[in-house]
Write a structure and sequence with these properties.
By secondary structure, this protein is of the alpha/beta class. It has 9 helices and 10 strands.
Length: 300
């Protein structure tokens, strides 16, 4: 609305999130410079403080339409307190939405219980679906039958009972299904089901428990074997991290990354000096974590 038009988000959000928010703001006739409130870490710090996030929400509450944050920050690996952020947004009548690309299959999420209004994610990371795989979307039950919600409607989001009647006007399917645009790619759905069955069998609580232990072991080995050559950017507090550890090197990352890859160690890099290590609890072992750090230490 004219009085409630701001979007609160992190300053270092993944480009897709930034582009989506900027384009939506412009579509509704507002200037991103006025409408987008960016939260940055304090000077000399890598990650956001929980209280700083809540303070920004409090400051702009009456004019904020949406608080939009990641579940896990893609660069630093910081996991955010989704429940507290959601509660802070709702206190001022704002929506709370989350990009869970790095959180789904990684953290133990309770979106309904936390009251999250909506969330979206990809499945090609921790859900093992691979590049180009189908995405996911969550819409809270309290919005399930709210036909007044603004959306760019598509045929596949129309009420299934009358979809093939080719009727008008648009009648949304309840919940997240009403935001679908077209029919999903069947082969992608089938392969994703195979991965989700494994998650169901293992249990997200067990997966998360092992993930916390694996990353704690990784931190311990990095500090013991790599010393001053590395700095762990990701918070060490278990509740503030997922499986990913972002590690800053004391040298350019490209040669190190290339050597790690040649040794069969699958990791990731971000220019100019950060390597991302993410031991996955479904299939990575403690021995593999040890081998990865041993190789990294020799390179440094």
């Amino acid at each position: 609305t004219k009085d409630r038009f701001k979007v609160v988000m992190e300053a270092k959000a993944f480009p897709s999130d930034r582009y989506a928010v900027e384009s939506q703001v412009r579509f509704h006739g507002f200037d991103p410079a006025d409408a987008i409130i960016l939260i940055s870490p304090r000077d000399g710090e890598e990650t956001l403080r929980d209280q700083d996030i809540l303070d920004v929400i409090e400051k702009h509450g009456s004019s904020t339409a949406l608080v939009f944050m990641p579940g896990v920050q893609y660069y630093t690996g910081q996991a955010f307190d989704i429940a507290s952020i959601t509660a802070a947004a709702h206190k001022h009548g704002s929506m709370a939405g989350f990009d869970l690309a790095h959180a789904v299959g990684n953290l133990h999420l309770k979106l309904h219980d936390w009251g999250v209004d909506f969330a979206c994610w990809c499945t090609y990371k921790y859900l093992n679906a691979g590049p180009g795989a189908i995405a996911g979307c969550f819409v809270h039950d309290r919005h399930a039958e709210d036909a007044s919600l603004h959306r760019f409607a598509g045929w596949w989001g129309h009420d299934e009972a009358t979809r093939f009647d080719m009727t008008k006007p648009f009648k949304a399917e309840p919940g997240a299904r009403g935001f679908q645009l077209s029919n999903p790619p069947i082969l992608q759905c089938v392969t994703l089901i195979a991965s989700l069955e494994i998650f169901t069998s293992a249990g997200i609580k067990n997966i998360r428990r092992k993930g916390v232990t694996l990353t704690a072991y990784l931190i311990c080995l990095l500090e013991a074997n790599c010393g001053s050559h590395v700095t762990v950017v990701t918070p060490k507090e278990p509740n503030s991290r997922g499986c990913q550890l972002s590690v800053r090197l004391d040298r350019p990352v490209k040669p190190v990354f290339a050597s790690m890859s040649e040794a069969g160690i699958v990791c990731d890099m971000r220019e100019p000096d950060v390597i991302r290590l993410a031991p996955c609890p479904l299939y990575n072992t403690f021995a593999e974590v040890h081998a990865a750090v041993d190789k990294l230490a020799k390179l440094l």
